[in-house]
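Appendix B, Record 12. Input sequence as logged:
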Amino acid sequence: MVSGELRARGTHEAIISEDLYNAVQVGVKTKSGAPHKKLSEDFPLRGVIQCATCGKPLTAGWARGRNKRYPHYWCWTTGCRRVNIRREILEKQFVSLLSRMRPTAQLLAELPTRIAAQWKERKERIANDTKRLSRRLADQKALNQKAVVARLNEEITIEDYEEFKQSNTGTISDIQAEINALESERGTMDSMLEQAEAQAVDLVGAWERGNVNQRQELAKAFFPDGLVYSHELRFFEPANTVITEMTMRFLESMLGVGVPDGI
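Logged structural output:
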């Protein structure tokens, strides 16, 4: 119970533990633009694009501007940090690359191996996310039961109960929607391979139609070794041999001159 600077412990049973309350407050007060693994849900190219100078994968996060926050990819390596780019700019350049790609017999032959790795990663992600969301759902339902008991015992006001109930109902609904979305991703490896073969024909369309996880899987399937990036050369760094080969095929197709299949 807080009144001005006076703080006193109530006699009723708490709806949540003091440790949980304090942990939440610490999390709220320490939010910043520092990278966090959870942010990868908003950044499908995280873990795919690497800094051309230090070779480390770019991290991603929300940088605070004057009036709002902006999504960025950047190099987080101490002493380097040569890359810092807005999400929409980097992803637009990446989509431009996809528009120039042409499927080859070699690429299609390699797809089953690449998709097998992505399938394993997808299953692990779905299992971990489902477990995490199920725990959150159980916690929210437990909180709801405690709130009902507290209201019946008149330990909290009707206004506080209604406010909590509205907030908690929304949270439970959001968690259940996330669980349902994960269920729809399960599918089979065969369906994932069929999807990848269709994507090879229309990579840009697959990217635009896909959700964040599907976009990340697409990028990792077609660029399993990742791509290096610099502000000077963008994706056309010498280390990106796949881009050099892709550009050659694109130019050859534009000029109407054939190239050996699989280059």
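The first strand starts at residue 2 and ends at 3.
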